[in-house]
């Protein structure tokens, strides 16, 4: 039987040219909204939202819980505060929703890109056939084909990681739009951008991921070089010896990677902590207020001493002269139980040497021969005054170490034991779980107390014990100024991070780096009305978050700590 002639009204378009909307975007079908695949955008979005909501609600609700325990306000006030926090964090302007858009949206964009690319490759290349198809198709098909042509022509030979990065750039831009445009009305014209802290955090984490990526590449290259040199220098026979040589090369490369990363973490923490501590004394407005409050509670310094350091920096308080701020320390000195003359700059010696010894004998200050400046007793802890040991700089460092260790243990015990209590509560009674956690808490507390005590010992070392005695002709306005004992203490305390293990050093370096960067930027850049800074912040936010999400998919071993 011969084939029937097709009717003029019958569609004669070849089967391979029929492109429907459902074929082009298959993951929009209802049957694929909740598949078993854990990498599906819907499942990724749900997991991301609840995880970020948990991480966001914890710190936000902690002050409410503390007020509830202390009963500092009524139950009605607590309920209203709880409702405001819950609405703020779970709404469209909240951090969880924005991060969900960035993570889940990146996965959705990537799947859309792949679907578009697949169907674009299946389309005929004959230009006449394409023009005829576009002329006879519906408006929706013409629009889809136009999008296909434009999108697929952007990066024709893109790699999977490039497609993932581009998808994450689009989703991160949407997340930034949500955070900035919805929250912008809540911040004043001279306040930082609502996403400024996040941009710094993402930038530091993304830079660290890039550094880890290059370190891994360098370690792999060193392993190959070692294996080649080993094979050329030895006569290795048998597969077992070859495997042993390869394992030795991998081990050496891994050791190099770990030692290099640990050294970089140590240097970054040292530099960042030095900047933070210097700004704490002279420019606390550059640091987050909560961070300044936490450092103040650990340092246990009277505010009048901090004010004195700042007026010395501005040269409004000079040894040997009277000024409008001469009375600044009078009340503080009396509160510590010393004569008021100990806080008078007009009678305090500005230089060391024999003249300073005469002045100290007149003022009744013991144990300060050969140096000038403010008596060190006024800088020591008030606890040493109550014990009658305030004239010893070494005892002051030991007392500050002991007090700091107690406070640090109260801080680090929950940090190391709460994860065990939440995940494996029964194992807390087992020796092989409890003892390592306790030792880790002691190690962390030792680090923090050493950080604190080494700072104050470096201050005493500079202005009293050694340096000021070696160079008595240098005025104490220099030793007590911004580039004297405060700077040396800031440069000293950061090396205490060597007490911590390698993993903790890296995480602490990543924690303090955003704060150090914030303290190093010009204040007018941080203000939200600076156009150039706002544009740079948006670019950094989008590229950094997109890079982190791309590393999480293709190179998760490059991420550390919270990023992973």
UniProtKB/TrEMBL annotation:
Keywords: Membrane, Transmembrane, Transmembrane helix. It comes from the Eukaryota. The keyword Transmembrane helix applies. InterPro entries: Tmem135 (IPR026749). The chain crosses the membrane at residues 49-70, 91-113, 401-422, 434-458, 478-498. The keyword Membrane applies. This is Transmembrane protein 135 N-terminal domain-containing protein. It comes from Rhizopogon vesiculosus. The lineage of its organism: Eukaryota, Fungi, Dikarya, Basidiomycota, Agaricomycotina.
């Amino acid at each position: 039987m011969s084939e029937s002639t097709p009717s003029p009204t019958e569609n004669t378009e070849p089967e391979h040219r029929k492109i429907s909307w459902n074929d082009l975007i298959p993951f929009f079908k209802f049957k694929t909204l909740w598949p078993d695949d854990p990498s599906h955008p819907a499942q990724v979005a749900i997991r991301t939202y609840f995880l970020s909501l948990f991480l966001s609600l914890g710190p936000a609700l902690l002050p409410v819980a503390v007020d509830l325990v202390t009963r500092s306000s009524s139950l009605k006030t607590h309920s209203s505060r709880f409702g405001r926090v819950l609405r703020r964090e779970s709404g469209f302007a909240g951090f969880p929703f924005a991060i969900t858009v960035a993570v889940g949206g990146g996965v959705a964009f990537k799947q859309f890109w792949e679907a578009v690319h697949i169907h674009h490759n299946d389309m005929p290349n004959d230009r006449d056939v394409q023009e005829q198809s576009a002329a006879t198709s519906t408006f929706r098909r013409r629009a889809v084909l136009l999008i296909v042509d434009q999108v697929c022509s952007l990066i024709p030979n893109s790699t999977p990681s490039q497609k993932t990065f581009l998808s994450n750039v689009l989703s991160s831009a949407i997340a930034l739009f949500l955070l900035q445009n919805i929250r912008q009305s809540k911040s004043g014209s001279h306040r930082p951008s609502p996403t400024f802290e996040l941009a710094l955090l993402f930038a530091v984490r993304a830079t660290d991921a890039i550094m880890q990526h290059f370190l891994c590449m360098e370690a792999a290259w060193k392993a190959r070089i070692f294996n080649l040199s080993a094979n050329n220098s030895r006569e290795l026979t048998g597969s077992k010896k070859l495997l042993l040589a390869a394992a030795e090369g991998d081990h050496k490369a891994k050791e190099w990677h770990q030692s290099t990363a640990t050294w970089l973490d140590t240097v970054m923490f040292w530099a960042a902590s030095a900047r933070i501590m210097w700004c704490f004394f002279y420019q606390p407005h550059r640091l987050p207020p909560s961070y300044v409050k936490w450092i103040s509670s650990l340092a246990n310094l009277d505010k009048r001493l901090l004010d004195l350091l700042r007026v010395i920096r501005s040269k409004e308080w000079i040894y040997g002269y009277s000024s409008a701020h001469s009375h600044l320390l009078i009340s503080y000195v009396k509160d510590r139980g010393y004569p008021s003359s100990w806080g008078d700059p007009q009678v305090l010696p500005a230089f060391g040497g024999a003249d300073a010894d005469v002045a100290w004998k007149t003022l009744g200050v013991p144990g300060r021969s050969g140096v000038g400046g403010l008596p060190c007793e006024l800088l020591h802890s008030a606890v040493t005054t109550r014990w009658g040991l305030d004239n010893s700089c070494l005892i002051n460092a030991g007392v500050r170490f002991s007090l700091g260790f107690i406070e640090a243990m109260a801080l680090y015990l929950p940090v190391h034991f709460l994860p065990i209590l939440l995940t494996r509560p029964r194992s807390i009674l087992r020796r092989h779980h409890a003892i390592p956690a306790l030792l880790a808490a002691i190690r962390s507390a030792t680090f923090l107390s050493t950080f604190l005590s080494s700072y104050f010992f470096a201050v005493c070392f500079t202005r009293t014990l050694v340096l000021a005695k070696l160079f008595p002709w240098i005025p104490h306005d220099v030793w007590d100024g911004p580039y004297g004992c405060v700077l040396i203490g800031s440069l000293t305390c950061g090396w205490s991070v060597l007490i911590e293990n390698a993993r903790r050093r890296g995480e602490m370096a990543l924690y303090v780096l955003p704060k150090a960067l914030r303290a190093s930027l010009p204040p007018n850049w941080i203000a939200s009305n600076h156009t150039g800074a706002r544009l740079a912040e948006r670019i950094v936010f989008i590229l950094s978050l997109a890079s982190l999400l791309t590393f999480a998919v293709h190179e998760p071993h490059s991420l550390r700590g919270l990023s992973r």
